[in-house]
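re: ur question from earlier - yeah i can do the single chain one, its not a big deal. heres the input i used so u can compare w yours
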Amino acid sequence: MEKKLNTPISDSVRTSLKVGEEVLINGVIYTARDAAHKLMVEAIKNGEDLPFNFEGQIVYYVGPTPARPNKPIGSCGPTSSYRMDNLSPTLMKHGLKIMIGKGERSNKMISEIKKEKAVYLIAIGGIGALLSKTVISSEVIAYPELGPEAIRKLVVKDFPAIVAIDSIGNSIF
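and the output i got, formated as tokens:
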């Protein structure tokens, strides 16, 4: 049975999630891939504001395809998460605590997840068209010059994911 999560996610709900649990996410999630991560890390180093407040929010590693007519988004399957492993720790220190992607994370990243009491969720790769059906709305909020890698604010209903690494470092892998 899936656990329903409504964003923003409280610290107590986040840290109660256990590896292997299936979740359905409702509310706002933000998209960001490696190019956006790099720009956010640069913003932090330069003392600039981030495009959104990470507190209680979820970042989904995705670069969706263009939306078809009358649809909020195109196919939106997860991106391989290891590509964010060198950038995510900086963002985690600034409040990022829940990430969605696909695939394994490095041992160093698992240690950072445990240290920050963060959580890593996986979405199933290869079903981007089905995942797009959970997206109610999509709005580019930062870095439009990145095209599909721009940061988007998505509103989702029953977006499915699995807890792959929980806040104490247990890993499904």
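The helical segments are 11-16, 34-45, 88-93, 107-116, 128-132. not sure if urs matches, ping me
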